[in-house]
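Lab channel / #folding
Pinned by the channel admin:
"Please post every new chain as: sequence first, then the structure tokens as a reply. Keep commentary short and put observations after the output so the thread stays searchable."

First post following the new format, from NK:
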Amino acid sequence: MALGGVLLGLLARYTLPRRSTHGAALVPAVGTAAAVVVWVALTWLGWAWNGGWIWWVSLGASLVAAVVVDVWLGRRRTEHDQRMLQSLTRTGLATRS
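Reply from TO:
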């Protein structure tokens, strides 16, 4: 299950834009954590580990979590960088060598 979360996290990282705004391991780690947490929660709820639905739900949650974090973090970081650049430009720090 964890390997599936890593692979889906890597898929999200390398197919979505703004991957330069966060670390290389963050989105795969989020995908892995989501897959494992959902898997454990579903086994506690009595879902059979050898049933198909537990796999689909766990891996689906992994992909959704990785995509949401990647998009959210990319947007937030880009907006923050723009605000910082404007602030530095106003003070004249961005133009000094």
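NK: The chain has a mean pLDDT of 92.
TO: also worth noting, The longest helix spans residues 52-91.
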